[in-house]
Amino acid sequence: MRRDAIFIGIEVDQGALDEHSELPAHLTQVCPVDIYRETEGALEIVAENIDECVLCGLCLDTEHLGVAVGAVKVIKLYDDCAVLGAE
Amino acid sequence: MRFFEYEAREIVKRSGIPVTDFGFTTDAAEARTIAERIGGSTVIKSQVLTGGRMKAGGVKFADTPEEAQAHAADILELEINGQMPRGVLVDPKADVKQEYYAGVVWDGTAKKPVILFSDMGGIDIEDVAREHPAHVGRVHLSNILPLSDYQAKECIAQTGVTGKALQRLTPIVRKLAQLFVDNDMVLAEINPLAEMHDGSFIALDAHMDMESEARGRHKQLLKDLGVGDDETRMAREPTEFELAGEAVDNASHRGVAGNVTEFDGNIGLVIGAGGGSLTLFDAVRAHGGKPANYCEIGGNPSVEKACGLAKLVLQKPGVDKIAVMMSIVSNTRVDIVARGVIKACLELDMDPAEKIAIFRIPGAWEEEGFKILEKYGIEYADRSVSMHEAARRAVAKIAGPEAVTT
Fold first, then answer.
1. What is the pTM of this model?
2. CB contact under 8 A, A54 and B333
3. What's B384's DSSP letter?
4. Which of the listed residues B82, B245, B259, B292 has the most CB atoms within 10 Å of its CB?
């Protein structure tokens, strides 16, 4: 699943979402600018909030859920699509 | 925050300065009752927050209560400079021997209050200062030390007033200064301060202007005077542009992007951070630029909020480009503001590189911000470029190099 705004793109691996039902709630809880929304167990990426991303990286920290590193990507569209945390 | 004359006089009265036995009313019949109570000739004065009342017919003299009622009825229907009166003030017509002026204002250059006194009252103090400078006394007050009678006396004496008049005026001027300090005023003025034929002094008119930010410290006074929380009491009503700026700021709790004031220039400003707005606004003017607006942005607003402010300024008639500038170094994130102003351009179908004359916000996350600005080809400056130099570049780019005066 991927959504792009003007400056930021968000990508969440569908396989990780299928495998880890708690991932949508976790992302919803940690994001300070409400980019993620859990609706009936499913994840929604809120398009109008994507450019509000403050690059905090909290949504990337999913290892404690057993989710593989890289399942969630924050992409800086203004920086040759550099992936946050992978520079 | 300005007060009507009847409120200002009440504040003067509370401070212990003698005032006339005036009355305020919104009803012509009651004006007659007040005039009957006063006895003798009266003055009926429109209560509006604007000057030019006399010329507009908002001040009339009455010899009888019936005449006072008739004048009040006329004045209550009279619009002055676009304002309908709050009511009328009914005042005894005073038999004055001499008119004086006493005022305390905030001196922004000295950063302390200054007492002004003149033995030529009843006219604008600015005119007296220009045409008869020897008739204006000035004494600055300390922001820390308590007030003393000698400061008032020194100021009055500068105009040549001596003897009993000096002795009687001193406590009045000192009380006015105390009133200024106690009530967080930016202006406290009695004009005229009248000397009666028996040698007594009385305040015949007063103007008060309180620092708006201090309203919270004077809730009881404002309640007593009947000033509503929703009354801004500014020098003029906010424009549609300014109200739209307020709406942008109120749309989200994050940071500040508002406090917009409209001007008629052509340089759109998105400025702020820790006093930076005032400095940058002054810098633009010092270089010969004509700002289209003042505003304040800072405290980490959301992208949407920065975008909203930039869109508002970009769409203002007469604005060709905007200058995005902030203080020396700011904790407001550079990348977030950059996203906001660029988004504004894109949503308005404008080229950010063409519409943003200069972007000078050094501080938090500036490397990330500069990457965004580079991608969109926007001229930006880091902290090695002073605020004044950034303002100069903005003026040169927007108004043309020939417009730069320094």
1. 0.72
2. yes
3. T
4. B245
